[in-house]
Write a structure and sequence with these properties.
0% strand; 176 residues; 8 helices; single chain
């Protein structure tokens, strides 16, 4: 049962934390990416994932890491965003990677358009004292793309092997 709870909560909680951190601070702490890597490895071992599947997941993560850091080097994305995209690819493997990238791109485009529009309006006086909101509103600030990456990941996660392996009947019996 503990394994199922971990499958249900670990990845979504860390992705939500990454999104919130990016929203409020425009950074995603390295400890979030490290926790996601450690969580993947622990769950893969506890779940009995075959070594060739682990290697395929590592390959997906490494592929996205190389591409994302190329984007980081060009100044297109932040370093935290690059790392979160890569560790999400680690969790999803190649099987769900395209769905994730599509969702993240769509949500990222929508987020970018919304923020660009938001930055055209003056902040109401009652909100002007919030440092995080001032930074988010500043035209020279970047886009907290970790939000889109997290939403995209949370859209795909229910379709992954991690959730499909959860014994939901066990939860129904345990909750009585």
């Amino acid at each position: 049962m503990m394994l199922d709870v971990t499958r249900l909560l670990l990845f979504p909680a860390l992705m939500a934390f990454a999104a919130a951190s990016d929203l409020f601070t425009m950074t995603i702490p390295n400890r979030v990416s490290l926790a996601l890597v450690a969580g993947f490895l622990a769950l893969a071992l506890m779940s009995g994932m075959a070594w060739y599947d682990v290697l395929a997941h590592l390959g997906a993560g490494a592929t996205v890491l190389v591409v994302a850091f190329g984007c980081f080097a060009m100044g297109w994305v932040g370093g935290g965003d690059a790392k979160i995209a890569a560790v999400t690819a680690l969790w999803f493997g190649f099987g769900h990677l395209l769905d994730y990238l599509l969702y993240a791109s769509l949500f990222g485009g929508a987020l970018t358009l919304l923020l660009l529009q938001f930055r055209q309006w003056p902040l109401p006086y009652s909100l002007a004292g919030q440092p995080w909101l001032m930074k988010l509103h500043a035209k020279e600030s970047g886009i907290p793309y970790g939000i889109a990456l997290a939403i995209g990941a949370l859209m795909v996660y229910p379709e992954t092997e991690w959730i499909k392996a959860v014994d939901l009947a066990h939860f129904a019996i345990a909750s009585r």
